């Protein structure tokens, strides 16, 4: 793969393509997908052709392919995936989600395990989390709020999904040399499934994720930030009543740690007025993968 007119350093490529430098280096070592040239100081330099290849691979990964599958497609010159394949994949994700939901609402744990294992055999963990488990959580919440399922159904399903998500997060290796991202629920918050999905997304993007889960004691977060010195901190909030104290904490931490990039997410922020959202805009990361990508690009 050519390296003519190599002019971009790895930091520029990271920002242009949306991939962490450490992840890019790992891809180069394992798959030899691009071969950057080196300047006199020995630093990597990438060409426009390299950028094109990396963007193509990232598009495939974002659509649910593993990186090894994407590289195989690239090497076999399969540069396009037809629209019918995408439609079939979307339909399959919906069917898998419905099957998993039916198993959970029937308290069939073994069947739910089999359905989720089948999903993982077809799609990446990130795709399963965002496109199957994410929508499933919304459906379960809606069913409970509409009194169409009991609290027992909601607790069983949430506990099952939280356990599997936690296992998924731990299964992805961490690299302490990559940028650290501290994730925790906002003050008085206990619902962490949405935060777990975001944690998985961040870890798959190449960040070193320190996941704290449910809200921790007041004042402890300052100690943690001082100790691990993260580049990012994200807090989730699902209950509207907890938004003011979460935002207040974010503003206080931003003054105390001006270099720390702080993001807020969760369903509670969708219920705010447009005026309130405007005031909090610098912090709001959104609730979709597209929103997350945009926020990280800005920060």
TrEMBL record:
GO molecular function list: cobalamin binding; DNA binding; DNA-binding transcription factor activity; metal ion binding
PANTHER family the UniProt entry points to: HTH-TYPE TRANSCRIPTIONAL REGULATOR MLRA-RELATED, REDOX-CYCLING DRUG-SENSING TRANSCRIPTIONAL ACTIVATOR SOXR
Protein's UniProt keywords contain S-adenosyl-L-methionine: no
Designated name of the protein: DNA-binding transcriptional regulator, MerR family
InterPro entries attached to this UniProt entry: Cbl-bd_cap, Cobalamin-bd, Cobalamin-bd_sf, DNA-bd_dom_put_sf, MerR-type_HTH_dom, MerR_fam, Meth_synthase_dom
Pfam assignment, any one: B12-binding_2
Domain of life where this protein originates: Bacteria
Domain HTH merR-type: residue ranges: 7-76
